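Lecture 7 notes: from sequence to structure.
We start with the chain below.
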Amino acid sequence: MNDLFTDVAPARTMAALERITCRVCERPAAVPIDHPALLCPLCMEDLDATASHVAERYAAVVVRFQGAWQTLEDAVAASPDRAWWNEKVESYRARADYSAATFDAAWRAAKAAGGDKARLCGLWEALDGVAAELERLEGWYRRACAELRAARDAAGWPVKV
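Predicted structure tokens for the same chain:
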């Protein structure tokens, strides 16, 4: 008799997988549903090396930010337009009646005029670019460190990040 509901041994199946985006390398990966962290198998393979990569990548941008900051500070200190920078640029940004449109127009005019004012503006823009990169990287760094801690906790390893 053909019984539709007869007990049949279940077919062997693979462990359930889920798709993640690795919090370190940011690549998609398929990991078991009980995977301890949002890290791909390659990043999980050597947690110490992965933690070193995370720390080195973050430190490199922090060093670039500090260098850009120091370059601007040194340039302002040595500039014949130091008073313009301190009294006009810095003080205007701190004013309660600050207007982005007014500031942007004056900034463009200073850059167009050339000379040391334009150089200081360019150095500030370079610093601003590195600051934006650092801001984006800080989120990545926090997420990567959290997942490294989760992976190490699951493995019973001491946390080094």
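Points to note: The longest helix spans residues 115-155. The mean pLDDT is 89.
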